[in-house]
């Protein structure tokens, strides 16, 4: 069975307020709309979502919660990862390779520049993923550890 990966960038946030940590920045009203739109983009494929993993930052968790809400995915099952906050592309690829084999369809919500770098690497072409952007990859790999090295298809770039 193919592996389905949705690699998303968190939705829009305003600039940090004075003395506000970057980690604590919340979604703007535009960001809430972007996250909702991403959820409907994913829902349109009719897939059963096995896992949603996001950075522990407020904006990525809010994006993932909004996507989960649209998908009727139980929010208590969301997995938050401190390591995905401002992670490298190499770390995101490591996270993908470490996914459980029982999972067929996974959503990862993280940050730029790493999200754009991973998408660019997987399609071998420079791509910029905007806030709220979501890319859907279908891989014929039999194991998540092989996704980076096996042929796959970028189904759509929202």
From TrEMBL:
Please name the InterPro entries in this protein's record.
Answer: His_Pase_superF_clade-1 (IPR013078), His_PPase_superfam (IPR029033), Mito_Ser/Thr_phosphatase (IPR051021)
Q: Which CDD domains match?
A: HP_PGM_like
Q: Which residues form a coiled coil?
A: none
Superkingdom assignment: Bacteria
GO MF: hydrolase activity
**Is Nucleotidyltransferase set as a keyword in this record?**
no
One Pfam family, please name it: His_Phos_1
- SMART domains, alphabetized: PGAM (SM00855)
Q: Keywords in alphabetical order, please.
A: Hydrolase
Q: Which PANTHER family does this UniProt record tie to the protein?
A: PHOSPHOGLYCERATE MUTASE-RELATED, SLL1549 PROTEIN
Which protein are we looking at? Histidine phosphatase family protein
Organism of provenance? Adhaeribacter rhizoryzae
């Amino acid at each position: 069975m193919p592996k389905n990966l949705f690699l998303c960038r968190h939705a829009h946030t305003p600039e940090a307020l004075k003395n506000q940590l970057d980690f604590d920045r919340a979604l703007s009203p535009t960001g809430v709309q972007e996250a909702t739109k991403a959820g409907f983009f994913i829902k349109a494929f009719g897939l059963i979502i096995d896992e949603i993993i996001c950075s522990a930052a407020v904006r990525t968790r809010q994006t993932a919660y909004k996507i989960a809400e649209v998908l009727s995915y139980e929010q208590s099952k969301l997995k938050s990862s401190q390591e995905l906050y401002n992670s490298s592309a190499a770390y995101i690829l490591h996270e993908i390779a470490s996914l459980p084999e029982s999972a067929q369809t996974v959503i990862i919500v993280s940050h730029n520049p790493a999200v754009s770098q991973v998408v660019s690497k997987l399609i071998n072409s420079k791509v910029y993923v905007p806030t709220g952007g979501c890319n859907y990859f279908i891989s014929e790999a039999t194991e998540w550890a092989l996704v980076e090295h096996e042929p796959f298809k970028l189904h759509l770039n929202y």
